[in-house]
Specification:
It contains 17 helices and 4 strands. It has 494 residues and is an all-alpha fold.
Length: 494
């Protein structure tokens, strides 16, 4: 598959913004040191992209003493604060080591956008009003991403600081390699960064997003992205026992079902789907299946060892393109698009058939995920495995407990727990995963059955609420014709 990134600058900035928000949903599972190591790279990439963008108001003769732009001044201060902090703490905590993958993904999105802007730069003429509005929206997205991202780092470092202070109070020492002074300084630095960014973002967001430029969505982009995702996800997961890939697949599938639900709602409101059937069965079935994927994604996230969170490049590229194709239709400024906007961006008459295909592929991908869980090579992060095994043991108290289900047999070694390494899944943990995925398969099958009418034609000239979906040709039309049989008759004598 071709993994070349086809996203525009606007789509890259939107992806960076959404990735920063996603971190907040799981910040309790992330480590302060790994997040802080990547944060400087995020700010540096944001600053380089900011400088590559055109200026909002090129200086005119006689205006050299004009006041600096608020955004420019803020970005300079944010980058100076980050550079100064990293110069002061090149040694000690957080030290060398791995960096948070999602922060690296944000930095990569900024760098990719910087490359696109620089590569296609032309001598800057006076910008039109529409171009100025789009530029303001892009700059606001950058600042908002830094604001949301800094809050995630702030929460993680703050929790780590409280743990060190509690350890010091209980044992009168902190773990080796830690420095309470440096952790406290990092926390105060990130808090100041968040406060400064937030004081400016609150003045710009979401108002400045109203002028964001959008090209009309390419015809067939969403269908192509969904088909490519289906092919790549099946190919990768069929031979993978990597929990990071399973996590990405579950997250992307949840996004696809969320987008499908919004598209179907718009199609129902415009008469392309029977409203009674949509409200009565299909919408609820979609929401339930989406929630199952979200739950499974959180489980895979916990089971993914921190040192092994890299995903298959083709799977990641297909997931990014699928998200971008959905957001191109469903996202407007800082909110979900209205039905009228969705209808203007895509042909809603094609949505029922497309979602019907999504629901069919959804069932099959759930079965592929189930096969991965049955693979004995599947491992998980030691701390999450130990936590799940102990929870299973507590639930089993009072019933017959076998030796294999005991916490002694299920828990990882202290060395594995300390490093949070990948360990083999015990029977009790594998059983929990099988139960979760069995429920997922069942709900995916229910959603497919609830959408079995999608893609069929509906009688024209009636209100959508009164239309009865056509379930196909009549039985006698679908039966193959009987072959002609030569019946023996009287022979003709000449």
């Amino acid at each position: 598959m071709n993994s070349t990134d086809q996203r525009s600058v606007g789509e890259l900035l939107l992806h960076a913004d959404h990735t920063a928000r996603d971190i907040l949903m799981e910040v309790h599972d992330l480590e302060a040191a790994t997040m802080l190591r990547a944060w400087g790279e995020v700010v540096q990439a944001a600053g380089e992209l900011w400088r590559a963008l055109p200026t909002t108001a090129p200086p005119q003769p006689g205006t050299e003493d004009r006041l600096p732009d608020l955004g420019d001044l803020t970005m300079q201060r944010l980058q100076a604060m980050t550079d100064s902090h990293h110069r002061r703490h090149r040694t000690g905590w957080p030290g060398q080591g791995r960096a948070d993958e999602r922060h690296l993904e944000i930095a990569s999105s900024f760098a990719r956008a910087d490359d696109l802007v620089t590569r296609h730069r032309t001598p800057q003429p006076p910008l039109t009003d529409a171009q100025l509005a789009d530029l303001k929206a892009a700059r606001t997205r950058i600042l908002h991403t830094l604001y949301v991202g800094s809050h995630g780092v702030n929460v993680a470092v703050g929790r780590h600081l409280r743990e060190l202070e509690a350890n010091l109070a209980a044992h009168r020492r902190v773990p080796a390699g830690e420095s309470l002074r440096q952790v406290r300084a990092a926390y105060e630095h990130i808090a100041a960064f968040e406060h400064l960014a937030g004081s400016v973002v609150v003045q710009l967001y979401p108002g400045d997003l109203a002028g964001e430029h959008r090209d009309p969505p390419a015809a067939g982009r969403l269908a192509q992205a969904l088909a490519s995702w289906d092919v790549v996800s099946h190919r990768v997961l069929a031979g993978s026992t990597h929990t990071a890939d399973l996590m990405l697949a579950a997250r992307t599938q949840a996004v696809i079902l969320t987008g499908s639900s919004v598209l179907l709602r718009a199609a129902a409101e415009t008469g392309h789907v029977d409203q009674a059937q949509h409200r009565g069965h299909l919408d609820r079935a979609l929401v339930t299946a989406q929630a199952r994927w979200e739950t499974l994604a959180r489980t895979w996230s916990a089971l993914t060892p921190p040192a092994d969170r890299r995903t298959n490049p083709d799977l990641a590229a297909a997931g990014r393109e699928t998200r971008a194709a959905l957001l191109e239709i469903l996202h407007e400024g800082a909110a979900t698009s209205r039905t009228a906007v969705i209808a203007a961006r895509t042909d809603l008459s094609r949505i029922p058939a497309l979602v019907g295909q999504v629901l069919s592929a959804n069932v099959d991908l759930a079965h592929v995920t189930s096969d991965a869980v049955h693979d004995r090579r599947l491992t998980g992060a030691a701390r999450a495995v130990n936590s799940m095994a102990m929870a299973a043991h507590r639930q089993s108290l009072g019933s017959h407990v076998t030796a294999d289900d005991s916490p002694r047999a299920a828990a990882a070694t202290p060395q594995d727990l300390l490093a949070n390494r990948a360990v083999r899944l015990p029977y009790s943990v594998r059983g929990q995963l099988m139960d979760t995925i069995s429920a997922l398969v069942s709900d995916a099958r229910s959603a497919m059955c609830a959408g079995s009418h999608l893609g069929t034609r509906m009688p024209a000239g009636q209100p959508a609420i009164e239309q009865t979906p056509c379930l196909g040709r009549a039985l006698h039309d679908r039966c193959p014709p009987k072959p002609a049989v030569d019946v023996p008759g009287p022979r003709c004598e000449r």
